[in-house]
Every structure is written in structure tokens, then in C-alpha cells.
Amino acid sequence: MKVRDIIKTCEACPSQWDGHFEDGRMFYVRYRWGHLIIRVSPDLTDDVYEAVEGKEILSKQVGDSLNGFLDDDQFRREVLMFLDNFEEEKQTETGYGER
Questions:
Q1: Cα end-to-end distance, the chain, whole Å
Q2: 3-state DSSP call for residue 14?
Q3: How many angstroms separate the CA atoms of 59 and 96, rounded?
Q4: Contact by Cβ (8 Å): 38, 56
Q5: Contact 88, 64 (CB under 8 A)
Q6: How do the domains of the chain map onto residue ranges?
Q7: Which helix (H) or strand (E) holds 49?
Q8: Which uninterrupted H or E stretch holds 50?
């Protein structure tokens, strides 16, 4: 599934982004306390809160517990590469598998 658009909504503490996949579902990205999460809305929407409360597809510690800023290089490495390679078929019984 490919990313259609993405926008940074908060620079730091936490760093946040939201956007859409090509199929119209929204995703929400948050980096706080060194922890990166990505959530996806269940349906087509323009309401970011549906993504905020949606299915968690990535949960990963990438920094120390005092870190709330994800720089552009880390963002490309951790978020964009994951989203560009995210496939719905990778879902497991307990959630989405990591890549």
C-alpha cells in the first residue's frame, strides 16, 4: 500500500504526522519517550481521530526515554520505509507483524 500524502503536525514532544494511504484510509504517526507508533483508520476518512484510535501497525522503541524529536533522516528510515512496504496481508492473529 502506498502513501498518498503526509504532513507533520507537531515538530517535537511528541513529533507527529498524519496522512492517507492511496486507498483513502488515514494513518497517524507519533514519536514520544523514544517510542514510535503508527496507527491506521479502519475505514476511508479525513478524520485523524479515527486513525489515532485505529489499529496499531507499528510499535517500536527507537530512542531513549527522554527523546520526543524524530529528525528527517530517522523519519525516512523508520516511518516512510515501513509505510511504503506495509501490506495488509501481513496481519497476524494478534495484530500486524513487524518487518
A1: 14
A2: coil
A3: 10
A4: yes
A5: no
A6: 3-88
A7: helix 48-52
A8: helix 48-52
Amino acid type, 8 = K
- 64's CB contacts (< 8 A; 6+ apart) are 34
Beta bridge partners of 95: 92
- Alpha-carbon distances of 21 from 28, 66, 84, 91, rounded to whole Å: 11, 31, 9, 17
Dihedrals phi, psi of 19, to nearest 5 degrees: -175, -170
Q: Per residue in 26-73, pLDDT tens?
A: 999 999 999 999 999 999 999 999 999 999 999 999 999 989 999 888
**Residue 53, all three cell numbers:** 484510535
> In whole angstroms, how far apart are CA 30 and each of 17, 63, 72, 92, 93?
7, 13, 14, 23, 24
